[in-house]
Amino acid sequence: MSTAFEEVCPVADLPNNSRRCVLIPGSWRSVLLVHHRNVIYCMDQACYHHGGPLAAGDIEDMGGILSIRCPWHNYKISLEKGEGLYMGLEVGNMTTPVLKSKGVRQRTHPVKVENGMILVHDSSLDGGDSIASDAYAFETKGIPDLETKKDPDEIKLHSRML
Fold first, then answer.
1. How far is the CA of 90 from the CAs of 23, 98, 99, in angstroms?
2. Quick check: is 159 in a domain?
3. How many domains does the structure of the chain reveal?
4. CATH of the domain at 84
5. Residue 145 lies in a domain
6. pLDDT over threshold 90, residue 149
7. What residue ranges in the chain does DSSP mark as E strands?
8. Full domain range(s) for residue 73
9. Which of 11, 30, 49, 120 is most buried when burial is the number of CB atoms within 10 A of its CB?
């Protein structure tokens, strides 16, 4: 089990309400950093479903769980845990949808900030079972160049209160 954190970018390059794709230097894993509400999240940048560019997805509040919506097929993924989320019906209550989880589908990675730098630990190095997003973890094609977006307000942020 590896506990190494690696520098991926200066925190100044990721202002609040922004996101950025980076490579983890030691493993060359392609990840997405999301800085939202003063918390920095990190997950594999390509959606577990078909490798869609999560950096281009909307941030949504799904019943108190912050999630990102894949722009290709609208899959919703918890930023904190990487769970696939959806609205489903319960037996006995077929009229009001409730938030449900498909389980962890998107690999997330621990983040810390030290001396003005964002550090990420590649959680795949800890062993354990493979996660669906691992299939796309080293693909860098199709990553949007978000560095051209200088205004954090250009990133779409949505709230879906359920």
1. 41, 7, 10
2. no
3. 1
4. 2.102.10.10
5. yes
6. no
7. 6-10, 18-24, 29-36, 39-44, 58-62, 65-69, 76-78, 83-90, 93-104, 111-114, 117-120
8. 6-154
9. 120
Establish if 162 belongs to a structural domain. Answer: no
User: Is 160 a domain residue?
Assistant: no
Of 149, 119, 107, 106, nearest to 22 by C-alpha is 119
CA Rg value for the chain: 16
Please choose, from the candidates 58, 8, 14, 9, the residue with its C-alpha nearest in 3D space to the C-alpha of residue 149: 14
pTM: 0.83
Provide the token pair at 18.
Answer: 């922004």
pLDDT digits over 83-106, tens only?
A: 999 998 888 878 888 899 999 999
Determine the residue type at 161. M
Tell me the C-alpha distance between 134 and 47, whole Å.
10
> What one-letter code names the amino acid at 13?
D
Residue 42 has phi, psi (to 5 degrees) of -140, 130
